Amino acid sequence: MLVNPSFELPGSNSAVFSGWQQVGITGSSNHAVHGFSAAKLIGQNDGNWNISVFWQNLDCESGEQWEISGHVKHSSAAPLAGDCVALVNVEWRDVSDLLIDYETFTVADYNSIPDEYIYFELLSTPAPSATAKVHLLVGLLQSPTDPSPEVTFDQITFFSTAYPTFYDMQWDDFPNERIIEFANMNWKVKGPGLYDPGLNYFCPTEDCTWVDNEGHLHLMIRNLESIWYSSEIVLEEVLGYGDYIFTILGALDQIDEHAILGLFLWQYGPCWEPGNSWWNPYNEIDVEIGRWGDLEYELAQFVAQPWDWEGNLIRFDATYVDDELSSFAFRWLPDRIEFRSWYGGPDNEDPENMIFVWTYEGFHIPRPEIPRVHINLWQYSGPPAEDQEVVITDFNFIPLGGLANPVENLTINIDDANVYLQWSPVAEASEYNIYESESPEGPWIRIATCSINSQSLGLSGNKKFYQVTWE
């Protein structure tokens, strides 16, 4: 996994971004798909072929293939022209870092719509014999006869397809086949086994996790045959940007000091080295209720990981009565996270009911790869004095809104090679814009413009979602 893949953390000395090396004319841009910054490249026009790039290297074995994705745009003020192109290079290198071979992908050229990000998804060829390292470069090729363009890259991913893949790793902690339905959604149950957080034993059975006749979720920390078990569930579906609202029943301030209730987003990552944990490789957002082994601690905290980065965590206290209904929420957006807590259910988010509000706008806003919703109840620094139970009455998700001026009656048909879109014509439309996303919540990237009410697109990569608007 790349370090600093969304270009959020600045570098030191001459480096523009931490984790990235660079060649040529490089800088940063505040026109980002995600977060607050993106990687800017400017062509070197000195009458020769030149290249400006950001690059990283990872370990690699012969035969290994890599999935690459990201976003790129060029500027209308300094557009790509002639033979200038935005490119992605994959370089195969040996144990001494000597170049064995490379391949080049053009991701934008003079035909690309300026000032709008284009999403790209690529697959490398297998690494040749003797490969020990792979270099990923995002770059701008400057031709000797064309004006200097400006290109911006953002939110780059680079994942090996070797087993276990990035997608396989998401379910390592869920070896059982149990699925429960809660809040009209399907959730997998963690365990059995010894897992983080806290190296707890997790129980996947109805002894610790169940949904009652009213549709309420029950999670327990429980002593079963002299072993203390924790509980956790994860939503099967990836929801993406939007508002995540959890509603809980009971006096949460009476929770044992060794019990932690977690309401959070998480994806399992291939990067577990402690030295790389500072850039939030797990795309994690946390609401955590618990006193972390100390009764003097405030009850709850909002967190953008890593928790120990200055400004990424805030704690607050609250009191409750028996059978109190309360809600905790985080609205995950490309440039911020809006945390809230209030008394009452999802429809009671009014100023008079508010407990605490905090907006996070730091470096570590999770990227919309595949983090899923998790809910857990686990033991911190030893078991509680007695069994613990938390009742969650509901979970609600409100996705980000759709695009303006959508067409009506959009139909999508797919064969082995193409996606066919058709919709009702709009009499006053001068053109139609086709948008693509990896998630129904966006972000939406414009990929084509046409003047008729149909379009054929090449089929590639993972499942995509489409919208069409008119103007």
Domain unit count: 3
Q: Kindly, what is the distance between the CA atoms of the first and last residues, rounded to a whole number of angstroms?
A: 40 Å
Strand content: over 45%
Overall CATH class of the largest domain: Mainly Beta
The helical percent reads under 10%
Structural class: mainly beta
CATH architecture group name of the largest domain = Sandwich
Main sheet? Answer: 17 strands, mixed
Rg, Å, rounded: 25 Å
Number of helices: 0
According to CATH, the fold-level topology of the largest domain is Jelly Rolls
Total number of β-strand segments?
A: 33
**pLDDT under 50 segments (min length 5)?**
none
Shape: globular
Overall pLDDT, averaged? 92
Task: Tell me what the structure shows.
This protein is an all-beta fold. The protein folds into three domains: 21-160, Jelly Rolls, CATH 2.60.120.260; 168-399, Jelly Rolls; 411-470, Immunoglobulin-like (Sandwich). 0% of the residues lie in helices and 46% in strands. It has strands at residues 21-23, 25-29, 38-42, 50-59, 66-74, 85-93, 99-108, 118-123, 133-142, 150-160, 179-182, 185-189, 193-195, 200-202, 209-211, 217-224, 227-235, 242-249, 259-266, 285-289, 300-304, 313-316, 325-333, 336-343, 354-360, 372-379, 388-399, 411-414, 418-422, 432-437, 445-450, 454-458, 465-470. The strands form five sheets. The chain has a 17-stranded mixed sheet that branches. Strand 21 and strand 22 (313-316) form a beta hairpin.
